[in-house]
């Protein structure tokens, strides 16, 4: 393809993206901003933004892309990678299983009924709190720094915790505290309850924008290799395990349907964030033939916890641009 | 690559495959033939066989490949495809969900607790019985013929039901009958209980060999396109949905770990059968760069229901030959 | 107390009873006749009747006492006594536990999760079907005859099965069939599924009136001794065990509240029947100082399955007349 | 009965009691002292003691009656009575149900699945923690004092908290803390988590002997009336509700069997304590014809949490001396 032609196509694709954002923005009406965290409830539910960054570093974005928001459950992916890097995969997997459950994200039931206390996977709260307790560091601050350092390498800029959101979550964290004490009782926490919870709730409150999400997705999609830094940040094995977890458990108890109809490794958060990691082989016939990362933000979420405008937008893009791992 | 060189490589790969079968054959000692079906219990637990068929039709096989065995739960994949072809995906998905559960294959618990009676996915018995009830046909025989016809197109030869295995399963089908009556009670059966059960148990008893399995996997891997017949047998959408289901739910409550460590759409049966569908994009750097189907038979199974020699054999091949969808 | 005075008091109490029936009759509006059995749905929801029979054989009754109705779950009590007489208590209790569950009457969940397949108690459907399978007799008819014979001794007249109700239940028995096949699968049925179901559904369809219920309650309350026949029909141990079961499990998942606020051994059925067995020591300060049986009929039931007018009527009587085992 | 004759009978009964204690003492070998609390684990498992106090104040005792021990779950009964006195029965019952569950005492499952967060009954930990949060008082100390004051009125002497046991339980209270935070999350705690837990764990650690237990049982059995003080300590309604709860839920998930085979309102604790409340009408033909309270201590417990020597001793006495509410 000639350069000018390539530019034309890129321009056209950008226009498509803009149009699609406007097409799916009205879907926000079907959902609401997460209301159990005051700082999230105040967001504008009609916002919708997307960024896609290819392995060549070229970014395509559309919508309200200057907005920032907190990672929430998207942070589970990064914390899991961090724990695997720090402790080794086998250590981590002795303490958290990798099976999907079909339960809601804050369910405590299976902790009692199956291999008592062992959390089913790192993408539900129970597993994520166990993961946070395993991160390197002798205090919650050190553990958090470990996660943030990895994140900053991925996104290429400084990141901070949104203290207001963190405080707001800390004050309403009774269910998570119940889960953490249950884990402690069964021996599945590697540090004190309050330390693990502080790490977990602070990682959830890290502030990002859609471009940051797309960068995280890009590195995971690329099997841990950062195509712009030209550096392997974590092993291919950890990356593949992470993508498998995103497919089987990443979208709460919508994961099965997401895999079935969208077919990309993804993780959502109740802030309305969605992260998708697209390996090169899953996007050969797309505008990003060597893989890409996708970041979406649409704060109105459904009862399951996924962005009501973001999911259909991602589905539309994946279908139109032939991105699918299956 | 020159032709003679290609031949050499093929020969070498064949030798690898033979060696790997012998390497993993001893794993059979860790399991047992399914003992709830007398006809299965009499099988030789030490047998192990594999066939891999590429999109060019070239087959590589090793081990006890002349053995035949029954499809058992592998049939759930084909019946699901058949129901989608007959009724349309949306009709099918109104009656069976596509969420993984983490429960055992014959669990009845979720039928009571979540959206009462709707089975969680077509890869567990509850969902599979619902699927069988939806197949085209006015009798169990007609429904079964619909499934067999599709299967015969895939494998290119006549197939029969092993009547001894079928009778043996029919007589011990109390748990499945309990599930079926529960489904009937909640309105999730499209025909009479006994008709649905007869279809389900007969489809489980269809006799195949590893080459047949590989052919089925090849067509699914190729998005429904039969590369030898050069014919689209079912739609790309159905194929992708099926592969997603295989990844999230295909290996019973080992599915999460299978996705994490093997990373291929697969489905197992208690006969010791494993079917894997490898899309071209997941095998670019393998000896089968345009995709392949894999059939494995190792009748000694673990407590979850998967072949104890077959799973590590498949894992070894997938790792050595770079086959992975993630 | 002089005879004439005694007559006066009896007359006064009878008038109270009439007044109370009218007082609680309007409660029927809060419920509905069981709608899953067509023959029950056609009943007049506003009917309410009561009979109380003392150990001296004197009966006090009020309301629509000429109505007949089917025993439904009240039959579980008699079938349990019959099985204990036929097989011995220890044989029966090896096959059915006596723990309350807090689950609904037709729940199947615990069959899977606790000591797989052993029903929790004889007052829920799973336990009752197991009990029916243990009754003496080589056919469903013989087993049923065993139960009816015991019942007829208690009530002193011939009883018949309401064939219309039975047929209606047989046709809609899918959930019970699911339970029965589950029990068969786990080895907790003493005869074939269809035989056990036929016994169970026919015993549920035995036609009685409130005086019959009161007679059954009288004998159970009297520790198995029939005060009019002056004959011990079954052992004191079986009677006490039965009353304990009625208290802990007799009113479905309202049993705890019934024990707490009414405090009498009782069993209800979805036909709107309630049977209460009042031991002499629990009614010393009542108009029936040597014990009594109470039969109530009010076909409008609540979501749990208890008569919405019958329960408060019984509560009122128990409170006013000082009947309480606690 | 002549006085001398009465004395003779009393003497003989005392001798029976001594003999029965020795007869059942060896049963202790089947159990172990609770091992999750170090201070309990150090107890001598072979100890067995009983006290029975009649409404006339006469006590009969046998075995190691000088031993003291902590109330543990027996305190749930007194705390429940105290909450009902302080808040009224209807206030209490809006926050805790009175249904038996069949689950273990520290189960958290039903908090998630049924009317989310509302504990099923006050005799399991979840319900007991809710009850403790409702006791009168503006601090944990004030709430505890309320309970102790009621207890002291019942037993007629000063009582203290065993600080060593309390500390030991506080340090291992993760599972209870998990339950308490879950309750807080669903709005079923009336004070802060740590305050409720402190009350709950301290009430569990109140030190008593078998005579104290018998006195508590006597007052409850007598419908709240203290026959020695000649004073109504709490209402008859609260007493009857409490006895009903003891029968349906008092012996953990052995309650159904205990009601079936022993037939007395009772409550056990993991310290090996058992409290039984015998109403006069349930003991007319016993050596305590106007009712009694029974206290038992046998620290070796079974897997469910009940004293392995104490339960059969109580069963033997209840049978031999005709004590039974049914």
Automatic annotation (TrEMBL), chains A, B, C, D:
Record flagged with keyword Acetylation: yes
Coiled-coil segments: none
The keyword Hydrolase belongs to this UniProt entry's keyword annotation: yes
Catalyzed reactions: L-glutamine + H2O = L-glutamate + NH4(+)
Domain of life of the organism encoding this protein: Bacteria
Matching Pfam families: Glutaminase
Residues annotated for substrate binding in this entry: 73, 125, 169, 176, 200, 252, 270
Enzyme class: hydrolase
EC number(s) recorded for this UniProt protein: 3.5.1.2
Keywords assigned: Acetylation, Hydrolase
Annotated InterPro entries: Beta-lactam/transpept-like, Glutaminase
Quaternary context: Homotetramer.
Family: Belongs to the glutaminase family.
Protein known as: Glutaminase
